[in-house]
Design goal:
Blueprint lengths: L7 H21 L3 E5 L2 H10 L6 E4 L3 H6 L1 H7 L4 E3 L14 H9 L6 E5 L2 E3 L4 E5 L6 H4 L4 E7 L3 E2 L2 H24 L8 H5 L14 E5 L10 E6 L6
Parallel strand pairs: 1-10, 2-3, 2-4, 4-7, 5-8, 7-10
Antiparallel strand pairs: 5-6, 6-9
The chain binds iron/sulfur cluster.
């Protein structure tokens, strides 16, 4: 009997086909792209991209947590792992904002920066919106190598669809996540946090401050950005 309720094979096929298009365009733009089937393969792939003896910084990324790379980086004694996103047991930040800023700045001189992305377009654009900029700035310049993990669910047809995805899906869920999990009371009352809908607000604690579209690297930095596309639903 065919299991009509299980679409995993069809979804996997769809994700892989779209990922192949993305990777073709990434390569044309001097970025590397690699498709992996699931989060297990994603973990081993990312860890293999990080050699011993290097300093590694990270961006805030649910995808990284989901594939297990943050736990592995914490355990790996042969590297220096600089984690500005470390949390206490109750989910609040382990260090205060000033100390976090100092840790975030270390990303600019780190050997490797690992992060996610809010969306990626079929023609290979990485699309992100940040509040502080500590996640998007090292994508642009600084760390010698950047590793970006992205679930194929975040592949958007074009820039318009990508920006719509970030504003109407990623940002509201992220605001609620920071409020519920990390106790960032300042975010209570953001229109998206209250209603799940972005109204392009002017709220004092608006989390959308820096919209960054990475459209490739200059030839001198060819291969600096490495995108790992995962054939699973990941992240926000
Ligand atoms: S612009 Fe305002 S309402 Fe829209 S997602 Fe950002 S913080 Fe939320």
């Amino acid at each position: 009997m065919v299991d009509e309720s299980d679409l995993s094979r069809e979804t996997k096929w769809f994700y892989e086909e779209r990922a192949r298009v993305v990777i073709r365009h990434l390569l044309k733009k001097n970025m590397n792209g690699r498709y992996v089937s699931d989060r297990k393969e994603a973990l081993s792939t990312v860890m293999s991209m990080i050699p011993d003896g290097v300093a590694v910084c990270r961006g805030d990324s649910v995808s990284l947590e989901q594939i297990g790379v943050i736990d592995e980086l914490r355990k790996r004694t042969q590297i220096e792992f600089i984690d500005g996103q470390a949390k206490k047991e109750d989910g609040s930040y382990a260090v205060d904002a000033e100390e976090r800023d100092a840790l975030y700045r270390q990303a600019f001189t780190a050997d490797v920066f690992v992060t996610g992305t809010n969306a990626i377009t079929l023609d290979g654009k990485l699309v992100n919106i940040d509040g502080h900029g500590c996640r998007v700035a090292p994508l642009i310049f600084g760390p010698k190598k950047v590793v970006v993990v992205v679930g194929a669910n975040k592949i958007a047809r074009d820039l318009d669809e990508a920006l719509e995805r970030v504003r109407q899906i990623a940002a509201p869920i992220n605001a609620q996540r920071h409020y519920i999990k990390h106790h960032l009371e300042d975010l209570a009352g953001l229109p998206c946090q209250r209603t799940g809908k972005c109204i392009d607000c002017l709220h004092e604690y608006r989390i959308c401050r820096a919209t960054v579209i990475i459209d490739g690297s200059m030839p001198r930095f060819k291969g600096r950005i490495n995108v790992v596309l995962v054939g699973e639903q990941l992240g926000i």
